[in-house]
Amino acid sequence: MAHETFTKESRTAPEGYFEVEAAGLRWLAAAGAGAAQVVRVRSVEEGRIILDNVVNARPSLAAAEAFGHALARTHAAGAAAFGQGPDGWEGDGYIGAQEMSLVPEESWGVFYAEQRLLPYAQAAHSVGNLDTSGLRTIERIASRIADGVFDDGRPPARIHGDLWAGNILWSPKGVVMIDPSAHGGHGLTDLAMLSLFGAPHIEAILDAYAESARLEPGWRGLVPLHQLYPLLVHSVTHSAAYGTQAVRAAERYL
Question: Does an H or E element contain 93, and which?
Answer without folding.
Answer: strand 93-95
